[in-house]
Amino acid sequence: MTVESTAARKPRRSAGTRKSPSTKPELVQLLTPEGKRVKNAEYDKYVADITPEELRGLYRDMVLTRRFDAEATSLQRQGELGLWASLLGQEAAQIGSGRALRDDDYVFPTYREHGVAWCRGVDPTNLLGMFRGVNNGGWDPNGNNFHLYTIVIGSQTLHATGYAMGVAKDGADSAVIAYFGDGASSQGDVAESFTFSAVYNAPVVFFCQNNQWAISEPTERQTRVPLYQRAQGFGFPGVRVDGNDVLASLAVTKWALERARGGEGPTLVEAYTYRMGAHTTSDDPSKYRADEEREAWEAKDPILRLRRYLEASNHADEGFFAELETESEALGRRVREAVRAMPDPDRFALFEHAYADGHALVDEERAEFAAYQASFADGEGA
After folding, report:
1. For 267, phi and psi rounded to 5 degrees?
2. Which residue of the set 99, 114, 132, 279 is catalytic?
C-alpha cells in the first residue's frame, strides 16, 4: 500500500463532523428557536414585567444592529474600510446583555460589540472611524461608560477587573461588564482576571460570547468542559445561556449584574451562540467549517425567533415591521454617507496622547517625521 493511498483512506476531520457539547441540560432558554415562550423558575422574574413595547424595542435593536453590521461589511468590500469584524448571529447576546445594564455600569468591549455600543448610545458611525483608520476609537469612553474597542485579545478583562475593584473601594453600587470570546478564554489575562476578581470580590460580570470558532479553532480544541464551568475553579458561579435568545440573555445578565451590585462578586456568563459570518473580512470560514453547520444555526436565528414570538403574541403588526424596514434603509444610507465623508486624519495626530505629559523621544520622532513630510514638498522624497 502506498503512502498516498494510506492518506486517502485516513478519516479526515471536517467541521461538519465535529461534536458540539450538549446544551440541553445546562442551557438557560426562555424563547425556543420556533419563538415559543418557555418557563424558567429561576430567571423568569427578571423579564416578568417586560412590556410589548420593550419587546418591540429589543427586536428593533437587533434589526438595526444587523443592518449596520451588513452595511459595514459592504463598505469594507468596497474599499472604504480596512477591516471589519462582523457580529452576524450574535445580536441577541449583545442586545440582551446591553439592555440589562444601567447607565452607571461600565462596559469593557472587544472589537465586535457593535450591538452593545448601540445600547450604550454610541453613534454607529463612530465605530467605523477606527476600521477606516481615521481615529483611535472616535468616542469618549466616559461619555457612555463604554470603553474604546480593544484589539489585544483578552486584555480588557484585566482592565475591567481593576476598574471593578476601584468601584468597590469607592463604595458605589454600580457594576462592570467585560466582553470577550471563546478564543480569548484561553488567554492568560482572562485567567488572571478570574483570580483577582474572585479574591477581591470585584463587582464584574465576565460575558463570554462563545460563537464556537476562535477564527479557525473550534471550541473543543481549547476546553474539555463547557466554558462556564471554568468559573467553579476560581470560586464564583458560571452559567450558560442561549445566546440566540434575547430574553434569556437579558434575564441572565440582569441576574449577574444584580449579584455584582449586591456585593456577591463576579459571575461568568457563557452566551452559547454562533458566528454566522467570517471572523473578520480578511477570513474565509469556508476553509474550516462546513455549510451544514452554518445552515443548522441559521434555523436558530435570534431575530427570526423574536419575530415569531411577537407575531404569535400579537405584540407587533405588519405596520411595525414595515416602519422598521424603512428605518433600517435610512440607517444604511446614513452610515454609507458618513463613512465616505470622513476626512483624512491629521498625519501628526499619531504623536498625540502617547504620554500624558509629553516625552522628549516623541518630540524627536515628530520632528523627524515633519522633516520627512517636508522633503516631499521639496522634491527630495520623491
Report:
1. -140, 145
2. 279
